[in-house]
Amino acid sequence: MPESDLTLAAMAEALAESADYRVLRRLVPRESFVASDGQSAKTGVLIDVETTGLDQQRDEVIELGMVKFDYLPEGRIVGLRGVFSSFNEPSAPIPPEVIALTGITNEMVAGQRIEEAAVSSFADDAVIVIAHNASFDRKFAERYWPIFQRKAWGCSATEVEWRKHGFEGSRLGYLLNGAGFFHQAHRAVDDCHALLEILAFELPTAGAPALAILLEQARTKTMRVWAEQSPFELKDALKRRGYRWSDGRDGRPRSWYIDVDESKLDDEIAFLKTEIYVREVEPRLQVLTAFDRFSVRA
Description:
Nucleotidyltransferase, domain 5; 4-stranded antiparallel sheet
């Protein structure tokens, strides 16, 4: 290591030991993790897509990044298996605001295509696919690459209660800063490397890595509760409760709905009976698992 780097490293260590400073280090993708000690490992894939916009039916993917890793059943990451990164040229020029956000230009994607066979080969042996906004990434991924329709998915943004574990929020940058790093955001594979570091981070409040918390939540069933034909004047009460609106254009009911853990279903139905309908009601229920949660099919 050059002498100047040693000096900087020593300065960083000295600052980190003081309660008056907080040191963030540039994230350098690492290749080594804690050894598995011969235990049988499973394979996961982290995925991130950059797109021309937020409309999952009309906008297009311009970059796909994936990082494949091995982990033990208790959620400890033990190895990096591979990295996938590819551009895709959309049918129309990339909007200026997307170029400004991602740094991806029309010149960078010109003539580029993401080969479905390559994507399928990379993700084939994964038992779970994780994104940091799975409700966004999964819908795009399934539209482009059918292999993701039959995979279990997890969401690192919503399936870990980050504030409960001392973080300021669930945005990727906040989490990475909390783990002591910064990185080049909004580039697909860079975000995947950042997410890998976050999931490997041991949460002091849990005594386990963040991946373990996510996997536990991903394995649970979720109940989607539909508040169909609820009184219009009570829409704000539903919103405060966490209900979201489905406009019915995708074939789902035109209604407010909420996803709750199976253990909280009785409480949710009681809320609807006493606060919304003020009568006995049997709302439409939908069971979701990691295989359909976050999907356009859910």
